[in-house]
Amino acid sequence: xxxxxxxxxxxxxxxxxxxxxxxxxxxxxxxxxxxxxxxxxxxxxxxxxxxxxxxxxxxxxxxxxxxxxxxxxxxxxxxxxxxxxxxxxxxxxxxxxxxxxxxxxxxxxxxxxxxxxxxxxxxxxxxxxxxxxxxxxxxxxxxxxxxxxx
Length: 150
Prior knowledge:
By secondary structure, this protein is of the alpha+beta class. The protein has three helices and seven strands, in the order E-H-E-E-E-H-E-H-E-E. The termini are far apart. The relative contact order is 0.16.
């Protein structure tokens, strides 16, 4: 059997993420979600939305992969990253981005044709004028990858 793409709802994608993602939970919103299937079995999902940092996309031409999760099936991650980029290009976005933990290598992103952009510094989202719950595993440096679509 070979991998196939399948559009899924946010509910289905979030259920997969909640059961398998090693450090993130479900997302609040999205533009679209795609599942990778082997037969009838979902073996991975990608959820794409607007950039989490709103200052990144003042013209609304950038999409962001907010979650990608697989069950370990070989090549699923690069298959989904490539599919997400193609879908974003078809929708008129000029760039798609994502971030991974700094300790992760990003091999599936590179295999899908994305390029490393930069590494962010570790910080949390809590601010004096905007209190947020501190989540220790999110206060780490991240590698940012982008894929130019135009």
